[in-house]
Amino acid sequence: MLRAIRNKSILPAFSAVRAFSSSAKEMTIREALNTALDEEMSADPKVFLMGEEVGEYQGAYKITKGLLDKYGPERVLDTPITEAGFTGIGVGAAYYGLKPVVEFMTFNFSMQAIDHIINSAAKSNYMSAGQISVPIVFRGPNGAAAGVGAQHSQCYAAWYAACPGLKVLSPYSSEDARGLLKAAIRDPDPVVFLENELLYGESFPVSAEVLDSSFCLPIGKAKIEREGKDVTITAFSKMVGYALKAAEILAKEGISAEIINLRSIRPLDRATINASVRKTNRLVTVEEGFPQHGVGAEIWFSSLHCLFSVQLVNSWKYTNLLHLLNSTSVIEESFGYLDAPVERIAGADVPMPYAANLERMAVPQVEDIVRAAKRACYRSVPMAATA
Amino acid sequence: MSLSATKFVHPITTPPTSRSSDKPLFSTFFGSNHTKLRFNKPIVAAQRRSSSAASTSFSPVVAVSSDVVKEKKLKSASNLLITKEEGLVLYEDMILGRFFEDMCAQMYYRGKMFGFVHLYNGQEAVSTGFIKLLKKEDYVVSTYRDHVHALSKGVPAREVMSELFGKATGCCRGQGGSMHMFSKEYNLLGGFAFIGEGIPVATGAAFSSKYRREVLKEPGADEVTLAFFGDGTCNNGQFYECLNMAALWKLPIVFVVENNLWAIGMSHLRATSDPQIWKKGPAFGMPGVHVDGMDVLKVREVAKEAIERARRGEGPTLVECETYRFRGHSLADPDELRDPAEKAHYAGRDPITAFKKYLFDNKLASEQELKAIDKKIDELLDDAVEFADESPLPPRSQLLENVFADPKGFGIGADGKYRCEDPKFTQGTAHV
């Protein structure tokens, strides 16, 4: 079995050649992450893995399968159950030029280490005026799984994305997973990499370019998964899949939805979102996390802020405010382009319940996205959902 | 890498005496293990203290495995540790724990329960040994492996099973699940998914009972708290912070380490610089005791002393129970890393089998009586499963209940009135 694993991690160029001769290869997210880690570890000896069960257990979700055998226990470290401790150790190692990839069994456990992620990693480059850079990656599953209760189901995208100094990425497909993880490992700043447990086993087609070992996706660029002209739906992680399904349903009703896969929560690709909103004039934001102060709220504001910046651009007093309203280099009136209020779909404003029917109600479903898109297109459906 | 119990048979040197000589340190192993001690008479509380004081001249004491002691116990038949009634209560509780967990596994594979389910098979002696000595008002705080702690504390099997099925009749109305069992009536404070999370909470519960006794001057406020957690937790910072504070403030708490040698797939020896967890107690100024967690009577003896110590106001104790879980970490764990020889070794030391043998050999119970108990528990569980099956799922409106004790926390709605007063409030979509 080990031999098979070793063969699997043979140079991707080999499989790229095979891909040319056959139709697009399929790859699960698990394989995508595993190969990305493998390639980065072999390319740069300063990259090492740290986390609970990443070694002998082959990874709590088998993402790091085979890596212990390939790279040995000095580079694939099984830690005791002490998130605060090993995260801090990772950050300290990154201060001195090593490139740790710290795995949290789920991002819920990162709360035990959040002091180090924010205070030791995110703020260090700033506090030291550029003397210390922290090239660390924090990765692990984020968001709700199935029936795991309140303490295992929270989405941390909004929390981490609020913090300056961090880069926050959330892949959807295998291409995203591979490209973004490689970019994250090569990045000189702390990156929070939010995966999703339920997506690990899902397969996506990948092109030959993706399989190449130098494949990398740019951080801060969203992807338009599906072009459309009636309504823009932004989503990240598992919700992209739901949004795509919703788009199929909407297409049958004559609504052409444009689905944006955010990929990068911080920095948010406001340019792509604004360009899309200017095209479709309607916006639906979808996320799994809690609604208040969430990613949807931030995107809402992004499309709004241009209104203020245009009105105040001639007032010198507010020039500073302009600088704070970051991102798009071209000041456009996205707000003026909206034909309907922005619809925000988020998880229910409650801790995740355990009971299966309550859990289904607490997380956005495809029907919720469809309903919201229709509301945005003024083909409203009553608020109360059918049971 | 086979770990046999012999790894734990080592000379335990007594720790250096504390600075204040009025604090006796219970590092010597007591209870029915007196065979291997230098002192061959049964050790009674008063003598224990003098023996530990005297043993500063380094008489090494050996912690032994139960099979050695079993034989010795038989010979001193007049020194039975329990009465018949107590024996039957202990047996019934362990059988309830075991059968319940087996039923959980069945139900999980039939799709009736879901998510993370962590079973307690093999560790029943610890739960029964400790919790059966508590009053109803005493507090128990546990981890995600909490079904049996809930049952031992008195939460009805029906309620626990319904909770696991996610039904509205569960002890937490289906909102908590396997890992989050709470019961106000039986003072079970959870049920925490995070390792180490329950320890500060337990320390707080102990603080509250001490506060009520000393500041609020409530008579009879002498509740003891038991905090159960595993070997993996003993590497977590929160554990040490709480050992320090509990000892500093002399809180009525017993820290019970269920050392089953494995934290998912991480062996205790690979994760810990000094694997002898009981030693960490004296480092913080409290007694640290190591006990064979596969023997319910030994656990019970140690527990009795520790709980009474706490109740008298003498402060916390750290008890390390060497035990083993027969199944994997959870029902989703393939359990490939543990050596089958190790598993077989501990399967041979099944606490229920051992206790049964004790009851027979000391003529405390007959085969029929125990079989009757088995049957009773089987019926109880069948009833619990049926009850859980027939119970309704939580209603839609329950989604927003219990978020706040005062539901006005949901704020003011568009019409200027509190949102919770609007009857349509619970009929929204995922984003409410």
Automatic annotation (TrEMBL), chain A:
Q: Which InterPro entries match?
A: PDHB_mito-type, THDP-binding, Transketo_C/PFOR_II, Transketolase-like_Pyr-bd, Transketolase_C
PANTHER family found in the cross-reference section: DEHYDROGENASE RELATED, PYRUVATE DEHYDROGENASE E1 COMPONENT SUBUNIT BETA-1, MITOCHONDRIAL
Report the cofactors: thiamine diphosphate
Transketolase-like pyrimidine-binding domain spans which residues? Answer: 27-202
Give a yes or no for keyword Transcription regulation in this entry. Answer: no
Q: Which UniProt keywords apply?
A: Oxidoreductase, Pyruvate, Thiamine pyrophosphate
* Name of the molecule in the record: Pyruvate dehydrogenase E1 component subunit beta
- Matching CDD domains, A to Z? TPP_PYR_E1-PDHc-beta_like (cd07036)
Q: What does this protein do?
A: The pyruvate dehydrogenase complex catalyzes the overall conversion of pyruvate to acetyl-CoA and CO2.
Enzyme Commission number(s) from the entry: 1.2.4.1
- Name the chemical reaction catalysed here: N(6)-[(R)-lipoyl]-L-lysyl-[protein] + pyruvate + H(+) = N(6)-[(R)-S(8)-acetyldihydrolipoyl]-L-lysyl-[protein] + CO2
Top-level taxonomic group: Eukaryota
Automatic annotation (TrEMBL), chain B:
Listed under catalytic activity are: N(6)-[(R)-lipoyl]-L-lysyl-[protein] + pyruvate + H(+) = N(6)-[(R)-S(8)-acetyldihydrolipoyl]-L-lysyl-[protein] + CO2
List, separated by semicolons, the cofactors it needs: thiamine diphosphate
Region listing for Disordered, in residue ranges? 1-20
User: What InterPro entries does the annotation carry?
Assistant: DH_E1, PDH_E1_Alpha_Subunit, Pyrv_DH_E1_asu_subgrp-y, THDP-binding
Question: Which chain positions lie within coiled-coil regions?
Answer: 363-390
Which GO molecular function entries does the Swiss-Prot or TrEMBL record give?
A: pyruvate dehydrogenase (acetyl-transferring) activity
User: Which ranges carry the Dehydrogenase E1 component domain?
Assistant: 94-394
Keywords, comma-separated and alphabetical: Coiled coil, Oxidoreductase, Pyruvate, Thiamine pyrophosphate
UniProt cross-references to Gene3D superfamilies, sorted A to Z = 3.40.50.970
Assigned EC number: 1.2.4.1
Q: State the oligomer form and interacting partners.
A: Tetramer of 2 alpha and 2 beta subunits.
Q: What does this protein do?
A: The pyruvate dehydrogenase complex catalyzes the overall conversion of pyruvate to acetyl-CoA and CO(2). It contains multiple copies of three enzymatic components: pyruvate dehydrogenase (E1), dihydrolipoamide acetyltransferase (E2) and lipoamide dehydrogenase (E3).
* Name under which the protein is recorded: Pyruvate dehydrogenase E1 component subunit alpha
**Organism, scientific name:** Stylosanthes scabra
- What lineage is this protein's organism placed in? Eukaryota, Viridiplantae, Streptophyta, Embryophyta, Tracheophyta
